[in-house]
Amino acid sequence: MRLSKYDLKSIIDLEKWHALQDSMSLVTQMAIITVDYKGVPVTRHSHCQAFCQAVRQDAELSSYCQKCDARGGLEAVRLNEPYVYLCHFNILDIAIPITVDNQYVGAVMAGQVRLADNGGSRLEQIVTRPASPESAGTFAALRQEYEQLPVMPYDQVVTIAEMLSHLCNYIVEEASRKNEIMDLYRQAMAVPPVDILPHMRLADSACPALQEVQQELSDSGALLESGGESSILPASQAVSCSNPTLQPAFDYIHSREHENFSLEAMARLCHISPSYFSRLFVRESGENFSAYVSRLKIGRAKQLLETTGLSVNQISDHLSFCDAGYFIKIFKKYEQRTPAAYRSWIRGE
């Protein structure tokens, strides 16, 4: 069964998220675990303190820990902000709600620290536990572990709670947006291309509307098979890459060789920053973006020179070079001969 777009498991890579959670736990000195909207853990506990581990394994006390988690999460959802509270052992915990489009998808539970001051004296003990000889004995046996809990001032706890809230919600929201764009892109790729005869041009009155639609779909990661001069030769075959983040850019580049497109536009298509896109692109292709595109266009130019009677000027225009002189210069850089000389050479003239 397909998961909802508001299901945390369908939004993020849980293994990568857990690695991030471990790092956040080390930096904040807090134990952290992530739960879904039902309160069910979706990650392992990061650096759970020895005292809390022992208490959660106790048959009598563990139920109170679960009640604290459940009630803390519900209160955070109700307030729609991080909720700082005290557990049944007066240990500080934080429930941080994660929302997408105002929809609650889960929470990050952090804490297992003791307060260094009385700044949180008005914090609510969310679950009270009746005193009993058994629980008192357990606490006495774990006194040393209790003393080893991290100690923090209240102001630092609040700062950490706000930081975790901003960071976690930003990552989940961005992951959700990227998933939506990839869904739109896959849907667009599933639509059969329109068969347009070679050299046929659309009526002038249709061009503005078509350009507007194409731009909208481009911004969403979708691809259109464009008509006009791009139909001179069939579009290139789809090219797969090892990094799925870059796949929309590679698909766009190889289906739109007749267009001019910038690194920034391709970064937007992949929903990442230009600098990160540039690093990933070099790692994937072994060359920078502009060199890759130039080489691709020259390869297309060679096809046109070999299989059509188009002039050098027409090929230059079709591939969106700024002028024929620049096209000839770039072509010669890659092929050590001019386009005209290449055509004569390939035809044995």
Automatic annotation (TrEMBL):
Residue stretches making up the HTH araC/xylS-type domain: 247-345
MF-aspect GO terms: DNA-binding transcription factor activity; sequence-specific DNA binding
Entry keywords, A to Z: DNA-binding, Transcription, Transcription regulation
Entry-linked Pfam families: HTH_18, PocR
PANTHER family assigned: ARAC-FAMILY TRANSCRIPTIONAL REGULATOR, HTH-TYPE TRANSCRIPTIONAL ACTIVATOR RHAS
Record's protein name: Chemotaxis protein CheY
Organism: Paenibacillus graminis
